[in-house]
Amino acid sequence: EGAAGYTMPLPDKDDSFITKTQLKHMMMAAMGGRIAEEIEFGDITTGASSDIKKATRAARNMVTKYGMSEKIGTIAYGGDDDEVFIGRDMARAKNYSERMTGEIDEEVKSIIDECYAEAKRLILENRSVLNACADLLIEKERINQQEFEALFVQN
């Protein structure tokens, strides 16, 4: 099974460090397909599940690993090992309280909600580009960065 649709970001010149702004932009891009479904069809599909997972992981890492949350602070929460195995999470001792778990979850949701709202605003603001892009993709199936950027000049 292939992906029904996806975007492939091009690497920056130096990708050894990623800024908070770059992470938020990545999350916004990941949510674009879900938002477009919601706007165009008034309904959503399961197609964005991988994108949602990617955005959630990025937001959680911002909060628990990278110290990119003013509310939570510059403290690392959790271990270095992100892999989840059946039963392991139950046996692993956390190095923070249940209260902090709730605060982390709230902050992750806040970041996701902020990125979703901003991405939706941008898509609505550029609705003509969304429609032109959809028309071009129906015609060509794939477009490159130059073709995509040209849609913003034309619309």
In short:
This protein is mainly α.
Describe this structure in words.
This protein is mainly alpha-helical. It is built from six helices and no strands. Helix 1 (20-41) packs antiparallel against helix 2 (49-64) and helix 4 packs across helix 5 (127-140). The two termini are 34 Å apart. The mean pLDDT is 85.
Write the layout of secondary structure elements.
Layout: H1 20-41, H2 49-64, H3 88-91, H4 98-125, H5 127-140, H6 145-154
Helix pairs in contact: 1-2, 1-4, 2-4, 4-5
Q: How do the SSEs run, as a string of H and E? A: HHHHHH
- Please compute the radius of gyration using only Cα atoms: 18 Å
Query: Strand content of the residues, in percent?
Result: under 5%
Please give the largest β-sheet.
Answer: none
The portion of residues assigned to helices is 55-70%
> Which blocks of ≥5 consecutive residues have pLDDT under 50?
none
Separate helix tally: 6
Straight-line distance between termini: 34 Å
